[in-house]
Amino acid sequence: MSLHSDTHKELNHVLTSLLTSINQFFLHARICKDWGLNTLDQVFYKKSIADMKHADDLIERILMLGGLPNLQQLDRLLIGESPEEVLSCNVRFLGHQHERIKTAIGLCETAQDYVSRDLLCRILDEEEEAIDWHETQHSLIKDTGLKNYLQSQTGA
């Protein structure tokens, strides 16, 4: 297998993760909106839109490299049934996504595909910000209590 086909394969793995992320964060946004947690709704909605833009960039890159983007594959969605569970599911998902992107970056380095590597590094930076934000939310729940945290997320 050539380095280019390995790169296409790995970029498609990241694309699968982004497509899954779009769905997970969009559904979590709408669940939080239904619960009246408007701040969480907006954060998760913006994350899903950002992932859509990243997926678009990745699709263009795969096509430019002569590959075929696979939009038919999704990973399993991790959907929470309570606000705490939503945050925990997102953290688990983001951790898996972080590792997948780091693996792809390593392969791009080996293949000397620095344009793809730079694209993935930009995506990785945003994923690390999302992980940090979610970890902060868990700290806020611990420090202020769930009831006070949820009240702060209503946007009222």
From TrEMBL:
Family: Belongs to the bacterioferritin family.
Coiled coil: none
Job description of the protein: Iron-storage protein, whose ferroxidase center binds Fe(2+), oxidizes it using dioxygen to Fe(3+), and participates in the subsequent Fe(3+) oxide mineral core formation within the central cavity of the BFR protein shell.
Gene3D superfamilies named among the record's database cross-references: 1.20.1260.10
Record carries keyword Oxidoreductase: yes
CC cofactor: heme b
Keyword entries, A-Z: Heme, Iron, Iron storage, Metal-binding, Oxidoreductase
Enzyme Commission code(s) on record: 1.16.3.1
Ferritin-like diiron domain sequence ranges: 1-145
Native organism: Marinicella sediminis
Name used for this protein in its record: Bacterioferritin
GO MF annotations, alphabetized: ferroxidase activity
Keyword Iron: yes
Origin superkingdom: Bacteria
NCBIfam families xref list: bfr (TIGR00754)
PROSITE patterns according to UniProt: FERRITIN_LIKE
Catalytic activity field: Fe(2+)(in) = Fe(2+)(out); 4 Fe(2+) + O2 + 4 H(+) = 4 Fe(3+) + 2 H2O
CDD domains: Bacterioferritin
Pfam families per record: Ferritin (PF00210)
